[in-house]
Amino acid sequence: MDRIARESLLYDFYGALLTDKKRQVMEMYHEDDMSLAEIADDMGITRAAVYDSLKSAEQQLEHYEEKLGLLAKYEADSELARKADEIIEKAAIGENDAEKLREIIEKLAAAEAV
C-alpha cells in the first residue's frame, strides 16, 4: 500500500482523535487534493505551518495505529475475506449459496470494523 493510501486509511480510523485544525488540514490535503500553498492561503497561515501541522497529524495517526492496530486488523480481515471469496469461487456450490456466504462475510467484516 502506498503512503498516501495508508495515511488516508489511518485518517478514516483515527481522524476524529485529531484536533480540529489538524483534521481540517488532513481533509484539505488528502480528500480535497489541495496543495500546501492552497491550504495555507485558504487558512491564512504559512505553507510551513501547514506542512508542520500535516506531518504532526500523520505522526499522531501512526502513533494511534501502533497502540490500537485497527488498520492492521482491517487489512488482516480483508485478506481473510479475500481468501474466503476464492474458496467460494472454487467450491462446487450454487450461486445462491455463494451469494449468501459472501453476504455473511461482508456482515462479519462490517461488525469487526465497528
Write a structural description.
By secondary structure, the chain is mainly alpha-helical. The chain folds into 2 domains: 66 residues, Winged helix-like DNA-binding domain superfamily/Winged helix DNA-binding domain (Arc Repressor Mutant, subunit A); 42 residues. The protein contains 6 helices and no strands. α1 packs across α4. The longest helix is centred in the middle third of the chain and has 22 residues. The chain starts with a helix and ends with a helix.
The CATH architecture of the largest domain: Orthogonal Bundle
Number of strands: 0
Structural class: mainly alpha
Helix content: over 70%
Strand-and-helix sequence, N→C? HHHHHH
Number of spatially distinct domains: 2
Q: Under CATH, the topology of the largest domain is which?
A: Arc Repressor Mutant, subunit A
Q: What Rg do the Cα atoms give?
A: 19 Å
Instruction: Output the number of helix runs.
Output: 6
Oligomeric state of this protein? single chain
Choose one word for the global shape: elongated
Biggest sheet details: none
Name of the CATH first level of the largest domain: Mainly Alpha
